[in-house]
Amino acid sequence: QLQASGGGYAPAGGSLRLSCAASGFTLADYSIGWFRQAPGKKREGVSCISDTNGAPYYADSVKGRFTISSDNAQNTVYLQMNNLRPEDTAVYFCAADLICIPSLKTMGPTGDYWGQGTQVTVSS
């Protein structure tokens, strides 16, 4: 089970930090990451950490603003979001056991482990 938290409201230029705690399995055994879905838009991959080498991947839209990290002791993955923009407004989902190949700029879900979404709203 994955439990996401940390969403909320932020002004443009502000920051939020999302957390996703795992229970029942060890996050470090899997590629982990975050997706988001805005109203009327397709779900998109935001960022992930590869279980192969620990390398991170970031979508071009968030590169330089978002940072993904994990705490194995806490069995938790984080997404630090800085310099937020109104277009970052979406429901954010954490996921594990996903496809994460940073060298190929590839990220995709497998549907095995998903957290509930957490809403992020950025005002202009």
Commentary on this structure:
The protein starts with a strand and ends with a strand. The model has no long low-confidence stretch (mean pLDDT 95). The protein is mostly beta strands. It contains no helices and 13 strands. Strands 2, 4, 5, 6, 9, 12 and 13 form a 7-stranded mixed β-sheet that branches. Strands 1-3-8-7 form a 4-stranded antiparallel β-sheet, with no helix packed on it. A two-stranded antiparallel sheet has the order 10-11. A hairpin with a 4-residue loop joins strand 10 and strand 11 (106-108). The chain has strands at 2-5, 8-11, 16-22, 32-37, 44-49, 56-58, 66-71, 76-81, 90-96, 99-101, 106-108, 113-114, 118-123. The chain is 0% helix and 51% strand.
Rg (C-alpha, Å): 13 Å
**Largest sheet features:** 7 strands, mixed
Indicate the structural class.
mainly beta
Strand content: over 45%
